[in-house]
Every structure is written in C-alpha cells, then in structure tokens.
C-alpha cells in the first residue's frame, strides 16, 4: 500500500495531528513522479515517526515551473501590501500553532521543547518583521544632471533554497521571509533528516492566503534534489545553510550551470573571549548558552573559549559546576535544556571528536561520554589543556563539545580568536569599553556578541566572513540578497 499524502501522527505529548507527506507544489501536496519515499526517525527514541515522499530531479523541475509561473503574476509585480498581508497572517498562524509546531520540531530533530518553543517564537517574529519590509524595498533616484533621468529598481528572482536540520523551522523562516517580502518565488528543500515542520508550514501558507506556486516545499536528499536546485538553469538565486564543504559544492554547481546568485551560511569555530574583569556568573551563563544551547548544533556556537589567566580558575570552576547542572534527556520534559543530537551520523561524529581529544592529550573537565540508553544523547563536554593543532580545536564539531584556552594579553586573545578558517561569530565578555572596541574591531567575524551570545534579532543581519559564508540573512541586508538592481537611464529630449 502506498503512503497516503497525509498521515496521522501521535506525538509523545499525547496530541495527534495530521502531517502532510507529499511534495508541496502549487499549494497542493502531491506525489513525486517516482513515488519514492523515505523514513523519518525520532533522534530521542530512535523510532520511525513516518515516511515522507522524496523529490528527485524531475520533481525539482516541476516545482521550478510552478515558481516560474507564480513569478509572472501580480504576486511579484502587484502591490506590496498583498504580500505583507500574507506574512502577517502567516506569523499569526505560527503563533496560533506554536505548541504543535514546537512539538513536531522536537519529535523530528530531538532538540528540547524549550529550545523548539524559542525557535517558533523567533519564526513568528521574523515573518512579522518581513511583513513590515514589503513596502519599504525601494530603489534610488540618481541625479546626473538635467540631460537624463536615472533610477534603480530592486528586481525579485526565482529562487532555490536548501536548509539544514539543526533549526528546520527557523531556517525556513529566514529563507521564506525575504522571498515573501520581495515578491520572489521559490523552491525550498528541507534537510532529509528533518522534513516534517517545513511540510506543515505548507498548510499554513495556504491558510495565510499565499497564491499558488509562490513557495514550493520539497523533501529530499542533498545529492539528488539539492544538487538539482543548485545546478538548475532557470533558478536565478540559490540560498544555502549548511556545512562549508557542501557550500563549496553548491557554489561550484551555481557557477557551472547559469552563474546564479549564491548566498551561503556555513560553518564556524567561534571564539568566546573572557577578560579578567568579566562578571563570573553572568559570563558562565553566556558560555553555556553559547555552546550547549540546541545541543551545540549551532553554526555560530562558541566552541573555543579563550579565558584570561587572572580569571581562568574561577571561570572553569563555575563553568564546570553549572554545566553539570544542565538537564539532559527526554526533550519533551519542560525542564530539559539539552535534548538529543539530531541523527545517528551526528552522534557518532561527535563521539569520534571527543575520543580524538582524549587521545591527543586534552583534559576532560566534565562530560566526554554519551548518556546510556536509547536516543542520541551526549553529555555536555568541556576540554582544557588543548593545543591549537588538535582536531577538537580546529574543526567544527557541531555538538556539545568546547575547548578552553588560557591567554595573558589582549593581543594574544585576538591572535588566538582569529586562528581559524572560519569567521561566523565571536563573543567578548568584559565591561571595559576600550577592550570591547579593540577586540571587536580586530576579530574577523560577521557577528560579535558583547556580554551576550546566540542573541538574534530580526533587524540584525547574520552571516559569515571567509569559510563561514557569503551574504547576510535578516536585517535590511537580506533584501539586497533577494533582489537584483536594475538601473534605468532615460535621455531627456529638449522640447519646447
Ligand atoms: P550536514 O553535512 O551537517 O548534514 P549538509 O550541509 O550536508 O549538512 O546539509 C545541509 C543541507 O544541504 C541539507 O538540506 C542537505 O540535503 C543539503 N545538501 C547536502 N549535500 C548537498 C549537495 N551536494 N547539493 C545540494 N544540497 C546538498
């Protein structure tokens, strides 16, 4: 018997809901041409939740055709208020379905319900922020003298978007918000391990009044559906969030197909710098949020902590104590801060890094082990006595594992902070404005958090330097990424 286009799922909370399984194309859930499907696992129980249908290259083509048709309509070229209305309604529906969306996310990804609820709130906030931008995306009038009239327009595009599995819903909102605000149309592919919340948003988009074909959402794998998006000859722009290696593949595919515009939000190995004058308990709270929030599966995680020698022992003592209090386990328990890692592959990769740290001579301050029993749970892990050449210090682990390094001077801290191929984010903890200015100006990263961490706002742009990516999401900057500038220069005839 073939998989129905909608299945009933019982969540661990006891709630049952109807989960779409098809490809969301032209505002309908449809079968892919080959009717292939794949299983979706719950990382906290290792059980199969359901299967969903898999898009292949020919289905990407169908979805692109839908996006191209929508691009020709009044949605793209008509009044921006119509787009704002859909975004406001969508934000309202996300809020209305917050409990359900958070539970779907927790079941599918393994993250704690606490974390999922935060993601849902940020998702609604971002859609609402984008709603306000719809009628403010303007060009310029350029004065070159009275012989010509010049202006620029911001022209939307047909997009392809590929999102990761660590924040399925939030990353979807960072992609769909600017699409809906600018009049772009899109084909969005969710990550193969976490397709459920994106499909559910398909239902909400219809309810919000989005015209057909504007947003098409497909489930599928990177090497097939993802690659078909990156190399599609009629997609004008691809936006990707994921690993640096895949980012490089996408950029190459974009170059070799039609030189589509590319934005990449990639990996990181972000430094979190603590100076002698920092407030110990507030700083430790931020160090924990920086590395253990979302089980460390955060591209901008503060995974290298640099501590000045005068405060080193105090911070380590408090950091160990507070880390050992973190509640890890059943992600549906409202007290749980750390749920499961998102997949078996990720779980094994993190444990391999932990073992390499131990083998290469680093000291485990706490953690260093999985939690016994079912599910992909790993204890929050702190390493000290590390060397710059160790894999745990150089590579992005994407898990709850942090290396702590001692330094003496401000210049040494800057040098250590920049000793990485990445440049996504950094943290600075001090109340000395001169240190804040010197260090924030010297660190090569797209985001600097001072006396805070993992602290996002829809109006503040996010993205990386160097191997951490190209382009920015959120803020005003993102609208430049989702539009191309057209300059119009009109010669004025001298009439009497
Ligand atoms: P990870 O390696 O941590 O799973 P990825 O960067 O591979 O992260 O995954 C992020 C997203 O990129 C997913 O949606 C995945 O399907 C997609 N992806 C993976 N490989 C490719 C590829 N070759 N082309 C396009 N998309 C890909």
From TrEMBL:
Q: Which residues form the active site?
A: 265
UniProt keyword annotation of Secreted present? no
Sorted keywords for this record are: Oxidoreductase
Superkingdom is Eukaryota
| Membrane-spanning ranges | none
Pfam families documented for this protein? Aldedh
Q: Name one GO molecular function term.
A: oxidoreductase activity, acting on the aldehyde or oxo group of donors, NAD or NADP as acceptor
| Domain Aldehyde dehydrogenase: start-end pairs | 32-488
Q: Does the keyword Oxidoreductase apply?
A: yes
Q: Which InterPro entries match?
A: Ald_DH/histidinol_DH, Ald_DH_C, Ald_DH_CS_CYS, Ald_DH_CS_GLU, Ald_DH_N, Aldehyde_DH_dom
Protein family (similarity comment) = Belongs to the aldehyde dehydrogenase family.
- UniProt name for this protein: Aldehyde dehydrogenase domain-containing protein
Which species is the source of this protein?
Candida verbasci
């Amino acid at each position: 018997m073939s998989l129905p286009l909608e299945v009933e799922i019982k969540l661990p909370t006891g709630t049952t809901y109807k989960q779409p399984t098809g490809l969301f194309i032209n505002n309908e859930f449809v079968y892919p041409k080959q009717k292939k499907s794949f299983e979706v696992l719950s990382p906290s129980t290792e059980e199969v939740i359901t299967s969903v249908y898999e898009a292949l290259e020919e289905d990407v083509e169908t979805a692109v055709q839908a996006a191209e048709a929508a691009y020709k309509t009044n949605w793209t070229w008509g009044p921006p208020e119509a787009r704002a209305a859909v975004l406001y309604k969508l934000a309202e529906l996300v809020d209305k379905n917050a409990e359900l969306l958070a539970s779907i996310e927790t079941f599918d990804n393994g993250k704690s319900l606490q974390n999922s609820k935060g993601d849902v709130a940020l998702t609604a906030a971002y859609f609402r922020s984008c709603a306000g931008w719809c009628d403010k995306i303007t060009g310029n009038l350029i004065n070159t003298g009275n012989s010509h009239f010049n202006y620029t327009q911001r022209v939307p595009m047909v997009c392809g978007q590929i999102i990761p599995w660590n924040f399925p819903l939030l990353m979807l909102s960072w992609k769909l918000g600017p699409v809906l605000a600018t009049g772009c149309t899109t084909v969005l592919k969710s990550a193969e391990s976490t397709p459920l919340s994106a499909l559910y948003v398909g239902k909400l988009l219809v309810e919000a009044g989005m015209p057909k074909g504007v947003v098409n959402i497909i489930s599928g794998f990177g090497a097939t559906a993802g690659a078909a998006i990156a190399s599609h000859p009629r997609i004008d722009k691809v936006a990707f969030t994921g690993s640096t290696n895949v980012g490089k593949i996408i950029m190459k595919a974009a170059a070799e197909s039609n030189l589509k515009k590319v934005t990449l939000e990639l990996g990181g190995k972000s430094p979190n710098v603590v100076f002698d004058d920092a407030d110990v308990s507030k700083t430790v709270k931020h160090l924990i949020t920086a590395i253990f929030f979302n089980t460390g599966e955060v591209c901008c995680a503060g995974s290298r902590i640099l501590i000045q020698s005068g405060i080193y022992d105090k911070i380590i003592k408090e950091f160990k104590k507070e880390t050992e209090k973190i509640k890890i386990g059943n992600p549906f328990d409202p007290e749980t801060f750390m749920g499961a890692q998102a997949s078996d592959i990720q779980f094994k990769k993190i444990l391999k890094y932990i073992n390499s740290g131990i083998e290469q001579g680093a000291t485990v301050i706490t953690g260093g082990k999985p939690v016994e029993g079912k599910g992909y749970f790993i204890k929050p892990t702190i390493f000290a006595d590390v060397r710059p050449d160790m894999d745990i210090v150089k590579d992005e682990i994407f898990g709850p594992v942090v290396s702590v390094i001692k330094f003496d001077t401000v210049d040494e801290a800057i040098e250590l902070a920049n000793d990485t191929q990445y440049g996504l984010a950094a943290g600075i903890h001090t109340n000395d404005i001169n240190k804040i200015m010197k260090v924030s100006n010297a660190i090569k990263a797209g985001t600097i958090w001072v006396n805070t961490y993992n602290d996002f706002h829809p109006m503040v742009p996010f993205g990386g330097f160097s191997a951490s990516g190209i382009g920015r999401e959120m803020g005003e900057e993102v609208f430049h990424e989702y539009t191309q500038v057209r300059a119009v220069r009109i010669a004025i005839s001298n009439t009497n």
